[in-house]
Amino acid sequence: MDIxxxxxxxxxxxxxxxxxxxxxxxGGKTISSMTLxxxxxxxAVSAPWPVEARAGDLCDPAExxxxxxxxxxxxxxxxxxVSGEAELDFDKGYRTNLNATLMMFEAIxxxxxxxxxxxxxxxxxxxxxxxxxxxxxxxSAPLSSYGVQxxxxxxxxxxxxxxxxxxxxxxxxxxVMIRPGKPNKASTSFFSNILREPLVGKEAVLPVPRDxxxxxxxxRATAGFLTHAAEVDLDxxxxxxxxxxxxxxxxxxxxxxxxxRVAGQDRVALIREEPDAFITRLVSSFPxxxxxxxxxxxxxxADQSIDEIIRIxxxxxxxxxxx
Amino acid sequence: MDIxxxxxxxxxxxxxxxxxxxxxxxGGKTISSMTLxxxxxxxAVSAPWPVEARAGDLCDPAExxxxxxxxxxxxxxxxxxVSGEAELDFDKGYRTNLNATLMMFEAIxxxxxxxxxxxxxxxxxxxxxxxxxxxxxxxSAPLSSYGVQxxxxxxxxxxxxxxxxxxxxxxxxxxVMIRPGKPNKASTSFFSNILREPLVGKEAVLPVPRDxxxxxxxxRATAGFLTHAAEVDLDxxxxxxxxxxxxxxxxxxxxxxxxxRVAGQDRVALIREEPDAFITRLVSSFPxxxxxxxxxxxxxxADQSIDEIIRIxxxxxxxxxxx
Lengths: 323, 323
Prior knowledge:
The structure is a homodimer.
Chain A: E1 2-6, H1 11-23, E2 25-26, E3 29-30, E4 33-38, E5 51-55, H2 61-69, E6 74-77, H3 83-88, H4 90-111, E7 116-122, H5 145-162, E8 167-173, E9 175-176, H6 189-199, E10 204-206, E11 213-217, H7 219-231, E12 242-244, E13 248-251, H8 252-263, H9 265-268, E14 271-273, H10 277-284, H11 293-297, H12 306-317
Parallel strand pairs in A: 1-4, 1-6, 4-5, 6-7, 7-8, 8-12, 9-11, 10-14
Antiparallel strand pairs in A: 2-3, 11-13
GO molecular function (chains A, B): oxidoreductase activity
Protein name (chains A, B): SDR family oxidoreductase
Keywords (chains A, B): Carbohydrate metabolism, NADP
């Protein structure tokens, strides 16, 4: 199988790449080559098959045509401008998150073959007011440009799949936590920061009230969603190709309690409150409780608890040791 | 007030134009000029203000810029490739229904003013399976390219409105019946045909089973939705700018019964069954029962009955006399 990953240099892209390099297969078929694409060159990976890591502009039609001309069997389309940046730079968000996605879909259609396309969407496709629990039939009425761009991408993927131009699935990821590395421009970056930084003895800033609730999944579970999305039988999914992934709901206070349980109260003391109205307003508009029945039925598996998410970070990023 | 109507040569565009020429105002403000745009030149209208009727290609950015440069106070964006044609010609549907709509929104944004934009959407944004009655919170998962294009238009309008680039509202029209004139390429055209043709003593073809249910509104009520959409206070609407319009639900059998009641059984005998699998499949995918609570609360008013819809046609199109 030939694999293409856009946004491969991002955190989710790296986790996915690592997972594929470990398993070596998708749906029982052996991976034979891999193209990693991003705006910055993805880091080298060690794999028993040829890997092309390439930096380029996703908004350049020639780049997209070039990637798709190789007719990859599975295309993971992860590349996106994150929510906070898409809200601040309207044109950049639409160019990358909507126009380039549509160009990608058109390039696939032009090749007249039928790859599996896995598109990462977001719970940002939903907008308040919400019911207490969001079902798989709740409307998409986003309150951010990012959410609108992702929602349009889902609709286009649904249509291109129905028409047989490719076999696509959109997976609405929870906020991925704990993100390794440095904070990015996502408005939800602080959720990771307030756990990751104290785990290595550093201070972290909490910009929102402690009773703010959110919906999370670990990088490990998230990479699992992606590979499962590449493998799952989509005939069983039917024409509705956008699936809300299972996750864990918790307040900021509950995150901090879990941090205390797993790593000790001295770590909790490293969190400093510094309210930010812009971030609070944007993140408050995200939904917090779901009943992702379709995804669970199709075998997508969430983390068990926030404690487990913290332990996964310690195992996968800190070599099993607190810093 | 300066008014722009795209798709002005279409049936709904003409009904809207006529209504505005009769009332002379929108929201209590006097109309001062009108631009009517379509792919064919809209028919001349008699109005006490300057009217520019213009034929052009909506997909030409220069045409759009030209229309919007005049900074119309109200833009009725009705122009679209109809459902059946958009399903058969994928590229044409996307070019007109999605790309040109986005170009229109961008042109308005570039003018840095804030007109009212009324976008005609459709119940085709919904896709089966449905609940028994579709609420205002039911997801948009279209089973036609037309539905996807309209749904994306709704999402974009919501975002541009939230950002303050214009003050927009999408109204999801029921199938308009009875359409005057000749059949068009809409897959729903036969609903009108089986009533309109017998009313003037002509045969009509019924391509679907009689128990097929659908959701209708008269041309008169539809023009009323449009003018109300231009007048209604959108602060009360909030960020969710796509509203399902109220209509009447009825089966084909019920349409035919109403025809018999209003015009006599000899008219019913003019309907000839000629099953068409393509039309039946496409129209069966449309939803049939709604609870359009938000629109009703905002003062949008539906027809009373199918009998009334037939009588409106006889009044407005046949001079009050059966042909």
